[in-house]
Amino acid sequence: MSKxxxxxxxxxILDMLIDNTRVPxxxxxxxxxxxxxxxxxxxxxxxxxxxIQGSSLTLDYExxxxxxxxxxxVFLHNTSQTKFVLERISEIPFVTVAHITxxxxxxxxxxxxxxxxHAKEVIFMIDDxxxxxxxxxxxxxxxxxxxxxxxxxxxxxxx
Length: 159
Description:
Layout: H1 8-19, H2 25-32, H3 36-48, H4 61-64, E1 68-76, H5 82-89, E2 95-100, E3 107-113, H6 116-127, E4 132-139, H7 148-158
Antiparallel strand pairs: 1-3, 1-4, 2-3
Helix pairs in contact: 1-7, 2-3
C-alpha cells in the first residue's frame, strides 16, 4: 500500500463524496475549480492508498420489508471457537454486523428481519451453531441515529 498524504483538495473531494458517493467527478471539479481528470486521479490515489475503500449504498429497509432490528449477544462455550462461530454467522444473510467483544458477550450481532417471527428464526439459526452456549437478544424500537457522515467530516477537519 502506497503512502499518501491528504491535502486540502483531497479533504474537499472526500467531504463531497461523504455526502453523496454518487456525485459525478465533473460536479466535484466544477465546485473546486479543478479538472475532472484531477478529481479522478486524486480519488484513484486515495483508493490505492486504502483511504477510500469502495462506496456504499443506503437502503430504506422499511420499504423493502426488513424494518425489524435486533441485537444478539452470543455466548460461546469456549473463546477458541470464535473464528468457527463467526464463519457460521457470516453465512446467515440477515446478520448484518458482527463484532468480537469483551465483557458480557463473546460476539455481538445486529440482525435485520421482516418481523418478530422472522427474527426468532434468525436467532434460532445463531443458537444452533456448534459452539454457541446461548444468546441474549435486545429488540430495537427505533434506529434514532445512524450517521457515519458526521464522524467522517469531523475526522477530515482534524487532519
